[in-house]
Structures are given as C-alpha cells and as structure tokens.
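Reminder to self: tokens first, then the designed residues, so the page reads top to bottom the way the pipeline ran.
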C-alpha cells in the first residue's frame, strides 16, 4: 500500500489496536464521502449527529463537551427552520456556523460554578474562601517574567505607574494569601526529576517562608517551617505514606499499600549472588544437534540458564520507530550486506529491487543520502562476494546430513557448503573467536563423518582462515562433548573471547601471567547478563578457566592458518 510493506506478526493487544484503527479509518472514509456532497440543514444535523455518535463514547469527563457539540448541531437545523431555509449547502457553510457557535462565551464554564473552583490567578478574584490551594509555584514559573521587545521604548525606560506583569503577580499572590480563611496550601516542585537535587520555590513563596520563620516558632523553640513544609516522596508506594506519625503524609490507595508492605517485609532467604549447579542431566541430552552444540559454546552460561534450567528471559519489545530514518542501523546494515553477498553469489542480485524493498520497509533514509549509503554497502558487499568467488572457484557445493556416534553421544545435523575437496563457509563480518569455534565444531564433525573432505575454508571480512585436517578428530570431539556435558550441570568456565586470547598467548610461548593479562584485557563477557547471573561478583578467570581454555582452543589454533584480506 503506497509502496510500503505491511507489518507482520500481530497478535494480542496489537491485533485489537489494528482492528480499532481499521474501524476508525473506515468511519472517516465513509463520512468523508458523505460530506463531499451538499445537504440541507436538517440533513447535516443527521449526518453530524451520526458522526459524533460513531467517533465518541460518552463518559463523565466528556459529557459536557459532547452536549455543547450536540447543541450547536441542533441549533443549525433549528435556526434554518425558523428562517424557512431548506436549500442544500456545502460543508464549508456548516463548519463556519459551528465555529461561530463554539466561539460564543455561553458555552464556556462559569466562575464559581461548583463546590470546587478551578481558576487562574486573575485580578478582581480575591474572594475569601475557607481553603485555597496554589499549584505550580515554581521558581521559574511565577511570578511571570516580562519580555520587552527591542522597539518598545516605554519598556526600555519604565516610569512609575507603568504596568509590570511581575509586580501584578506579586500583588495577586498577596491577595490570594489574604483570601484564605482556614487553610492555605502551596505546591511546587521541590526536587529535580533527573538527580533528585533540591529545587527552590517561587521567590514569593521563599519570601513568605522567610517572614514566617522570622516571626513564628514552635512551642519547643524549633523552626516552624519544619512543621508546615511537607516533602513528598518520589514514589506513591513509599512506606512513609502508610505509617502513623508521618505528619502530612498519607494515602487512600490500597494497591500502593500492598506494594509498600512487600518492600518492608524481611526476606527469609537472601537472593543468591550467583547460580550454582543443576542435577545430572538424563540420557536424552546425549543426543546433540550440531546447531545446539554450536549455541552452547557461543555462550555456555546462556545455554545453561535457558535450556537446562528453563529460564525465560523476557525480551524488550521496542516500540516501532515512527520517526524518519537518518541512518541504517548496524543490524540492518549487516542484513543488507548478507543479502547482497548471497544474491550476488546466486546471480540474483538487483540493486534497484533491494533499494525499493528497503524503502518500502522504512529502513532506508530518504533522498540522495539514503541512496549513497546503500551504494556504499552494496559496493562493499559486491567486493566481498567477488573475493568469495575467487576463493571458492567453480566447485559445486552441497548440504550434507551427518550423524556421528562417539563415546556414548550422538551428534547429528546438516552442514552446507561441502564440496568434493573440503568445505567452504563465509560470513560478512570479522572473524571473532566464537565464529572460529563454531567452524571448528563443523570441521571436526566433517573430519569424522567424511575424512576425505576434512579441509575447510572460512572467509570473513578481515581474513581467510584455512582449517587443516585433524589427525585425532575423534579425541578433539570427545573433549568438546565432555565440556558440553559438564556445562549442563554447572556454568562452564569458557568465554570465547577471553579463552581465545589466553590460549593464543600460550600457543605463542608466552607465560601464564601474560596470557591472563590478555584475557582480562579483552574480557567482554563481563557485561553479559547471563555470565553475571551465573558467576556473580566472583572472578571467573581462575584455574578452571585456564585449563578449559587451553584444552578447547589450543587444538583449534594449532590447526588453522590465517591470511588477512
């Protein structure tokens, strides 16, 4: 619709919202078609009354406003009938009449019309009341500031008797204080919403407080301001609102009381600083899908918490961005790169078609800037695709289904990119250790299942990594499966980035301290919530980490050769 793709995956409240929008849109279209024609005044009354009934649901807060609208619509037909006017008129005539009706003063609310009067501070309203409540007495809001234009000579040279809004507000404030008979309440924002730092009230309130402090005190001789100034808490469920003896703080909301009680209860058991171990897994876990084995080693802590303990981590549903895009975000840029590379290799690449698809999805900035960004991404993707073609050549590749029985485990799955002389995989991104280890798992599986194809090539954005045949692939796979089995019972001390940095230093003949320093320097896993939940505040880079890092990553390092692109 309008070269924009429809949204997919609506359910629950989103589907209800879409249904309401469709009803709203169809109602607008129907009445737009009707209002495009001319009608008699009585006909307009029927049309507009039906429109108001279709678009608004009366409640206590809108009943008065809807009565005003209904009165104006009915007066249109009534006045036309009195004048004997029955001709048809367009919508413009009706809107002019209704605007004049709404502008009349009799439809406004009158001063002192109910039990509680809400009004602005205006002159000649200094009527005595038992209780007066002043709102918004903030430092920068009241008294009002006078802004004098540069061409106002009177404002530049004021004289006695000239009007000053600031002086008028001072006088109004004084009149209001005198008008309060039993109680005067003044409200202002006393704390900054960003850092909770104190904020001063209006200078008029400060002067009133100074006057009270100088002339009054409590029976015990303390400052009376401590008794008359009430500082409210940041949250409505603060326990002070439900405690006796808290002067001026109270609440009538039982739901907030329940929350406050929960916060004040003493926990019988403290929350654990970290998660320990789980029970021994049953034999069904010995059947391992190749993809699951790769997911485990990418983030063993996440796998342990989500797959083994069944923890469901809620994903943050970000509201759809309704603003105009000015950049292509990182994830979207990677998806575009991947699509360009894959379609170029399959000889199905069409840049204009890709451009139109991105614009339809609202992912591409408008104008020439968006075109230039897409052209840069496409050029880089095409260059990478040419490099992949150059490395792979004209060999035909296929997807191989494997199943391996080893040491009581069954490893099964599919591996694509397998050719007659080895396997080829590529990814438009840097050759991070977690992706190297994933390809190492595939390499060991192919070496065991089809030894003649036990040479691999992984093409990344920054380098080409060649995997040499592994003589003891069964033993290396057994080490991986033993670590996998251990990680099903307790969090495994394996961190792809840090473990690779440690093992690489050891492989290059560096000492233990230098290797640990390298691991701690590149330790990005410390910010991962799953690792933090598993290990708490303890340092996971301990003896167990050193052993498993060398045992799993050192064979990989010894069996690969890298070539920078």
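Designed residues (565 positions):
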């Amino acid at each position: 619709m309008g070269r924009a793709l429809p949204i997919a995956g609506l359910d629950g409240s989103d589907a209800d919202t879409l249904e309401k929008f469709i009803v709203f849109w169809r109602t607008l279209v129907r009445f737009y078609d009707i209002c495009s024609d001319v009608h008699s005044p009585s006909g307009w009354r029927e049309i507009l009354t039906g429109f108001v009934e279709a678009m608004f649901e009366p409640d206590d807060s809108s009943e008065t406003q809807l009565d005003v609208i209904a009165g104006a619509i009915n007066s249109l037909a009534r006045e036309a009938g009195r004048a004997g006017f029955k001709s048809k008129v367009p919508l413009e005539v009706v809107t002019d009449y209704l605007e004049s009706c709404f502008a009349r003063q009799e439809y406004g609310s009158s001063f002192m019309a109910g039990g509680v009067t809400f009004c602005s501070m205006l002159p000649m309203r200094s009527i005595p009341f038992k209780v007066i409540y002043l709102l918004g007495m903030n430092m920068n809001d009241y008294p009002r500031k006078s802004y004098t234009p540069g061409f106002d000579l009177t404002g530049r040279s004021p004289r006695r008797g000239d009007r000053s809004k600031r002086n008028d507000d001072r006088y109004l404030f004084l009149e209001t204080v005198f008008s309060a008979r039993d109680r005067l309440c003044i409200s202002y924002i006393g704390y900054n919403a960003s850092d909770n730092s104190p904020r001063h009230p209006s200078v008029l309130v400060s002067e009133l407080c100074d006057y009270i402090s100088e002339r009054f005190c409590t029976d015990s001789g303390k400052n009376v301001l401590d008794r008359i100034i009430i500082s409210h808490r940041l949250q409505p469920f603060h326990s002070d609102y439900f405690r006796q003896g808290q002067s001026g703080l109270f609440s009538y909301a039982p739901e907030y009381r329940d929350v406050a009680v929960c916060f004040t209860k003493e926990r019988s058991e403290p929350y654990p600083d970290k998660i320990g171990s789980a029970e021994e897994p049953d034999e069904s876990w010995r059947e391992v899908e190749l993809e699951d084995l790769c997911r485990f080693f990418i983030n063993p802590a996440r796998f342990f918490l989500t797959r083994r303990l069944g923890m469901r981590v809620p994903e943050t549903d970000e509201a759809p961005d309704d603003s105009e895009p000015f950049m292509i975000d990182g994830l979207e840029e990677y998806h575009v790169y991947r699509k360009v590379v894959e379609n170029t290799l399959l000889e199905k690449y069409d840049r204009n078609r890709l451009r139109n698809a991105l614009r339809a999805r609202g992912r591409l900035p408008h104008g020439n800037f968006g075109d230039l960004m897409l052209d840069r991404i496409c050029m880089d993707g095409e260059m990478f695709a040419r490099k992949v073609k150059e490395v792979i050549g004209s060999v035909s590749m296929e997807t191989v289904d494997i199943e391996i029985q080893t040491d009581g485990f069954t490893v099964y799955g599919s591996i694509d990119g397998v050719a007659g002389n080895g396997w080829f995989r590529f990814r438009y991104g840097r050759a991070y250790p977690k992706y190297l280890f994933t390809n190492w798992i595939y390499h060991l599986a192919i070496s065991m299942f089809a030894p003649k194809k036990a040479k691999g090539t992984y093409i990344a954005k920054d380098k080409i990594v060649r995997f040499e045949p592994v003589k003891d692939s069964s033993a290396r796979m057994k080490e991986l499966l033993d670590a996998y089995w251990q990680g099903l019972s307790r969090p495994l001390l394996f961190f792809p980035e840090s473990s690779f940095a440690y093992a690489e230093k050891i492989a290059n003949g560096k000492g233990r301290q230098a290797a640990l320093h390298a691991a701690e320097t590149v330790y990005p896993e410390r910010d991962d919530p799953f690792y933090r939940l598993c290990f708490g505040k303890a340092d996971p880079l301990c003896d167990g980490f050193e052993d498993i890092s060398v045992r799993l990553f050192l064979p990989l390092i010894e069996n690969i050769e890298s070539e920078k692109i």
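Residues 267-271 have pLDDT under 50 and may be disordered.
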